[in-house]
């Protein structure tokens, strides 16, 4: 079943066209990588999906789990299981990570008609997740991303995703700024989560092929000037690694 069906999506910022007829279909359980050079519109695409107010959609459509995504408010999209991890996760000084996670989790549970977790119940929900994702329980007692290293911030994003039990995860440059050990830890957390939640669909946005050395993907899409210009399997990423973007024979340019 199609979780995400993007058809001829066009979007602008300040009257400047960024997305130019983007097409993408993601089914339940699939992992897709979207690759492309800086400035091609990858982050714009993710922000348009979650309803960032700076971007206006000027054409095309997006179906999410069979409904019109743009008919939903940004908060309703999150409640419906759409998750975006940020390229630069922000600190929220003075806000405890556990309180933050519980609030986000309860907001979704409430919208789904499920009982909210009290602090003890929430601990019962999050403790096994920490164990499975190999995330230190110290993460819970700290303030949101305060003093976190780049890798810790990215793992905290994966923890949020796991706690929320989202159905579609858009992970924007989850590899950016990380050394190889930190990258491996983040990738391992995503792999563990994916093992547990086989139905979850994932869209990995990345500029670099190296992330795909650690994360298994089903499809690779190359974006250029605001649209997907080539789609293939993991071999497409390896081709990029050795030949660079210029060499890729673009089908729909
Ligand atoms: P990518 O994530 O692929 O590097 P972005 O989606 O961030 O690309 O950017 C696509 C294009 O949109 C770039 O030319 C960028 O300068 C422009 N852009 C993105 N965000 C803004 C913004 N807030 N204001 C003006 N231009 C923007
Ligand atoms: Mg960029
Ligand atoms: Mg970006």
UniProtKB/TrEMBL annotation:
Keyword ATP-binding among record annotations: yes
What are the recorded GO MF terms, alphabetically?
ATP binding; ATP hydrolysis activity
ABC transporter domain: from which residue to which, for each copy? 4-250
Keyword terms of this UniProt record:
ATP-binding, Nucleotide-binding
Membrane spanning stretches:
none
Q: What is this protein called?
A: Iron-sulfur cluster assembly ATPase
